[in-house]
Amino acid sequence: MTTSVDPDTEELLTLLEDEYARTIILETYREARSADALSTACNADPSTVYRRIDRLQDHGLLEDQQRLDPNGHHYKVYAARLEHVAIDVTDDGFDVTLEYTEEDAADTFTRLYEEFSG
User: Fold this and answer.
1) What pTM does this model have?
2) The pLDDT value given to residue 42
3) This protein's superkingdom (predicted)?
4) Which pLDDT belongs to residue 2?
5) 61, 96 in Cβ contact below 8 A?
6) Strand 74-80 vs strand 62-68: parallel, antiparallel, or unpaired?
7) What pLDDT, on the 0 to 100 scale, is given for residue 76?
8) Whole-number Å distance between alpha carbons of 59 and 41
9) Helix/strand/coil (H/E/C) assignment for every residue in the chain
10) CA 37 from centroid of its chain's CA atoms
11) Interatomic CA distance for residues 62 and 23, integer angstroms
């Protein structure tokens, strides 16, 4: 018996299977991290990390935030949005449900302020 999987579901599952993507999610779950820090954590080239960051953002699993360094320059850090993944088997195939972290009001205000003032 052949079971077809929705292309979006298959792409998401393939992404979550990727070691670099999983490391990025784990490293950014509690604290936002820069691409350089993620490159070090993954032991991978920055270009590899940026490709994973882009794919994770495309699926809504990672968000970027602007930060201001002491010299007045802006830089991005990344924070995981993924809280929970559930995969259910149904008569029609696989049903993947994602739960995302919620941003509190103070974080929302800070993010919006930094985006508008930057």
Assistant:
1) 0.78
2) 97
3) Archaea
4) 44
5) no
6) antiparallel
7) 93
8) 22
9) CCCCCCHHHHHHHHHHHCHHHHHHHHHCCCCCEEHHHHHHHHCCCHHHHHHHHHHHHHCCCEEEEEEECCCCCEEEEEEECEEEEEEEEECCEEEEEEEECCCCHHHHHHHHHHHHHC
10) 15
11) 12
Name residue, tokens 């960051």: 53
pLDDT one-digit tens code per residue, 95-108: 888 888 876 545 65
CA angle 61/97/110 to nearest 5° reads 35
What is the C-alpha to C-alpha distance for residues 15 and 12, in angstroms, rounded to an integer?
A: 5
In angstroms, rounded to a whole number, what is the distance separating the alpha carbons of residues 59 and 108?
Answer: 20
| pLDDT of res. 72 | 83
